[in-house]
Predict the 3D structure of the following.
Amino acid sequence: MTETSQRPLRVLAAMSGGVDSAVAAARAAEAGHDVTGVHLALSANPQSFRTGARGCCTIEDSRDARRAADVIGIPFYVWDLAERFREDVVEDFVAEYEAGRTPNPCLRCNEKIKFAALLDKALALGFDAVCTGHYATVVTGADGNRELHRASDMAKDQSYVLGVLDERQLAHAMFPLGDTLTTKDEIRAEAERRGLAVAKKPDSHDICFIADGDTQGFLANRLGGPAEGDILDESGAKLGTHEGAFGFTIGQRKGLRIGHPAPDGKPRYVLDISPVNNTVTVGPAEALDVTALTAIKPRWCGTPPAGPGTYTAQLRAHGGETEVTAELTDGALHVTFTEPVRGVAPGQAVVLYDGTRVVGSATIATTVRRERAATG
């Protein structure tokens, strides 16, 4: 039984001001649920207008959400969660980069804001569920347990950023767009048919609280400005300098600004980031091959797995799946890849799948690189 066949519920629809959340709220209301719209004010100093498709939570977004709620015919409120967002998402993001890790603020927002702070407040007010415009599916089995599955359309699937939701949160989650086998253009066409003015509004992308897209500038402003350090090769030889190790991510190729090419003429990639001595180590692509990882702070979408198991894993929001074996030992998740993978960085999330079902998520702490033959 899927969520769309449930009894009528009191639903709090999180409305960002975009097309997906507006259509989700409209579908929930059309399904017979008692829906109330809410826009989350997550910025202490919202801008009057967004810059193209960048940023969110602006005054314009709040007004767009209110207009959509009016058209749907549902009550609408704005809730100020800016302080909680700053503490749980923005400060966490900065601290992770300062420690040389690569965080995913969307996962943290889903975990701490939309399905914790917002959900807790919703339940306290007597609502049964929180509805969002994410593309994922919640399925209720014959035993009454709820499972998180990929969206019907893999091209739009967002289950990766929802892999942090636990069983309790899933019990109160609703994703009306999850079983939609349509293109984004068709979602926009549906919004237009419903009279929603956000039908042609561009999607927000990148990091919502960095409206200009300059992540390095944002971090430099909060971590004390440029801090020159060395760019090293695998032997420790200095190749150049940088303006802050926090501005790099594992697997990065562009923006290294190394004055001379590698001896073999091949591109170099960021292999390691050391915030302690403010160095960045670069090397060839094959040095990025990871064969295993250990992840901490696991969160399970249901019962934790017992013993070793075979799964597929996703390592980034828009990445593909790879076959793995995984086992939970002493609170840490140990994952071994069937084939080496690249671009794996501490701080990222690894999300395990059993078919389309999301098993759970954990934060990558350490990785094991494939040994390479020595060159003479």
